[in-house]
User: Fold these one by one.
Assistant:
Number 1:
Amino acid sequence: MAQIENAPQFVEKRLMSYQPAWMESLIDIVANCIEPHSELALGYRWRNEDDLWEIWIYPTPAELVGGAADGTVVSPGFSLDVQGVSTSFEELEAVHWRAQSFGPHDQEGENLSFEGVYEGHHVFLLVLSQAPDDEEPGFKVDLTRKKEKP
């Protein structure tokens, strides 16, 4: 997929009035293939151009609360079951891992992309390692709460 110079015009979940049921199904599959390393919330954006559905799924940033790190925004880590996502497609044309960002105007960053057909729709799915720069924290992590002993 070509590099996009300006931020793409995506429809964000919080702004959506319409979302196809098949897309919700695919997002649920990806969410179930993610193993969070800590607390994690997912965000996503999508657009449809010329019958190609581009979907970005990413961990929303977390804001740390309390202690010396108060107010720091971090990106939660996770692992992805690549085979689980791959086998959800009826036809899988390509899977690509991009280990490094292309530069300061790169909106996608590090990601794993899947291109293929899902429930009859041509889909370009990106699982981003971090949220886009304009994404607000999706939740807070209280560093002052006492951890329970097992």
Number 2:
Amino acid sequence: MENPNQELEEGQIIQCTVEKILGTTVFLKINGGGEGTMTTSEISPGRIRNLRDFVVPGKKIVCKIIRMRGNQIHLSLRRVKQSEKKELLDKINKEKSYTAILKTVLGKEESLKIIQKIREEYAIIDFFEELKTNPKLIEKYADKQNSEKIVKILETKKEKPKELRQIFNLSSKAPEGIKIIKEIISNACQNSCNTSYLAAGKYRITLVGEDFKKLKTELSETLRTIEKSAKKKNCEFSLEK
């Protein structure tokens, strides 16, 4: 029998559905196959006033795999960063959008057969990303007429730009502190991002683009540059959680 957990690994961010809660343990079904458990201490940091605000049977939540022991998978809700949650949900929504194209053109039964065939060679998202540059690829799975319809729908669907934000604190006690801070931010950001002043040494950096992973990398590099420059200029720097 195929192990439903074989593609899972520690540290992975996944979507789960709450199945039941017994005592201090939450039992979850992992979307795509597998089961896991989560203790109430991994639901949220600090005291939980109302458990149902976080977990209730039937609710879909984004979790992190913190430990795997054989078929036992231990999950955490509180250790998932907001950016990690957004990245996974964006991926899930994109896959739903792509499979919806196939269902619209081919019908439910035929599309399920083709989706299964595609998944033998590609992840759905990877297949459609390649299809954008190689329209003939779909003809391997569908007849020419339906293939043309699928490509045409794909061409008309424009993805919304992705946005990534981070609030940080930056301050200086130097007489020309404001000038120093402006230079630090300006040199780090150049034209790739937008930084807004919020209040009392607090700023928000915003990046917009098509590729979420590239945005994450660019944001991390920009913040590291700001932090490095802040240390050289004897400024105080910290990130808002």
